[in-house]
Automatic annotation (TrEMBL):
Gene3D superfamilies: 3.40.630.30. Signal peptide: none annotated. SUPFAM superfamilies: Acyl-CoA N-acyltransferases (Nat). It comes from the Bacteria. InterPro entries: Acyl_CoA_acyltransferase (IPR016181), BioF2-like_GNAT_dom (IPR038740), PEP-CTERM_FemAB-rel (IPR017469), PG_Glycine_Bridge_Synth (IPR050644). This is FemAB. Residues 162-299 form the BioF2-like acetyltransferase domain.
Length: 356
């Protein structure tokens, strides 16, 4: 479906369920140095499949038929949080991915037109080049953490600052802790149990199980789970994505005992070794809120924060209230922390679908 034409480039909406179109889009993403898992059609399909938000993949084409840029979007609909066109939903990155500067303006204009056709929801681009024009630049809210993997386990251990390294050594010396990686049903169950408890304690509604199943299904061997157990009891767990040499732990957490056991430290350290064995060269610790305890923890693990820049646009300047640092959102967090875990796990998947 043709949605625009600007600067000699045509903009078309691709069908992520069409194998030929999806293959062409993914080939562009995998060949681009700034491509992420959140630009891939696997992510777009997984979110639609699990959360119900329609994927809208805009592609800028040269007259030759060659893809020169992509903008993956989800139309997130929520009565509680409001609607938005998000690139990409439930992702920490995404945004415009271009091989031709002309594609930036063409795709941004097409996205604005798409928003108008869909009732005027705001546009949220998580990363990528600035669209220019009247788009808002949003920074100062999040930082990212990436560094190269060291040559071996011992070198990775030395790269961790001394104080945090001492905590990790305690976990390494704890013979009751064991680590398993893979994609089995048992690992999926353990991951969800640990993750659900972890996010409830942080005041965040848990995502539905189907989201994790869909991501694992769509990404195949480019996604797996690592679980740390104390004996048979899962205490820390993470679902990780692998993309173009990057290890990307994405949905992870620990139970209340994780701090005492230092099992989160052990989890990420073992994941570094696991990633290296898979041929990865970078460890991407994801994003954290500026000034948060999570950001401080990652820094103490030997990672330097780098500001994340996002972009937004709406016809009336409005935006959704999904910023965890806002006063209204903080009240929701404080309420959620007090819910019994079974209640939080029942209500969380219904609410979290709208966060996007």
């Amino acid at each position: 479906m043709m949605v625009g034409n600007l600067a000699g480039l045509g903009v078309t909406m691709l069908d992520v369920d069409d194998p030929t179109q999806a293959q062409a889009a993914d080939a562009f993403v995998m060949a681009h140095s700034d491509g992420t898992p959140f630009h891939r059609t696997a992510w777009l399909r997984a979110i639609t499949q699990a959360m119900g938000h329609r994927a809208l993949l805009l592609a800028a084409f040269a007259p030759s038929g060659q893809i020169r840029g992509l903008l993956p979007l989800h139309h997130v609909k929520s009565r509680l949080f409001g609607d938005a066109l998000v690139s990409s939903a439930f992702a920490v990155d995404g945004g415009l991915l271009v091989a031709d500067d002309r594609a930036t303006a063409a795709l941004a204009a097409a996205a604005q037109g798409l928003a108008g056709d869909r009732g005027g929801p705001p546009l949220e681009l998580r990363g990528g080049p600035a669209p220019g024009g009247d788009w808002q630049r949003r920074e100062g809210e999040y930082v990212g953490f990436v560094r190269p993997l060291a040559a071996d386990d011992e070198a990775d251990l030395r790269a961790i600052p001394r104080k945090h390294r001492a905590e990790l050594r305690k976990a390494l010396a704890n013979s009751s802790l064991n680590v398993e990686t893979g994609r089995s049903d048992r690992l999926r169950r353990d991951h969800y149990r640990v993750y659900a408890a972890s996010v409830r304690n942080l005041g965040t509604p848990v995502f539905p199980k189907q989201l994790f199943h869909s991501v694992l299904q769509q990404f195949g061997e480019d996604a797996d789970i690592l679980v740390v157990r104390e004996g048979d009891r899962p205490v820390s767990a993470v679902l990780t994505l692998y993309h173009q040499g990057r290890v990307m732990p994405y949905w992870g957490g620990g139970v209340a005992d994780a701090r005492r056991l230092r099992s989160n430290e052990l989890m990420y350290y073992r994941l570094m070794g696991h990633g290296r064995a898979r041929g990865m060269s970078q460890f991407d610790f994801g994003r954290s809120k500026v000034g948060s305890g999570q950001a401080a923890w990652k820094k103490s693990f030997g990672f330097d924060p780098v500001p994340r820049v996002y972009h937004g646009w709406s016809a009336d300047g409005a935006r959704r209230d999904v910023n965890p640092t806002s006063a209204k959102y903080q009240r929701r967090i404080n309420l959620w922390k007090r819910l019994p875990l079974p209640v939080a796990n029942l209500l969380g998947p219904m609410i979290s679908r709208g966060l996007g």
